[in-house]
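It is worth pausing here to work through a concrete case rather than discussing structure prediction in the abstract. The textbook approach is simple: state the sequence, then state the predicted structure, then interpret. We follow exactly that order.
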Amino acid sequence: MRLNLKIEREKKNLTQEQLAKQLNVSEVFIRKLESGSSNPSSSMAVEFAEFFERPLDYLFPDIFLLSFDTKRIDNELDKNKEVV
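Step two, the predicted structure:
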């Protein structure tokens, strides 16, 4: 669930339907975005960020927040130890 997106909507005292009308999307799309079952296009994500005046990685951390694959890094380090 994208809790920050829901929190920002509620801070503006908007229902999912009201937000959908303001952004010219369907209420179903808003519901799916908040639940995390659907992703916005890049341009639509920017529209949300501009509407709420919040960064993309705050509203959609599962999409825009960089993650580091530390397990792979550890495996690569182990391989290098074996070679030496």
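Step three, interpretation. The chain is about 70% helix and 0% strand. The helical segments are 3-11, 16-23, 27-35, 42-52, 56-59, 61-64, 70-83.
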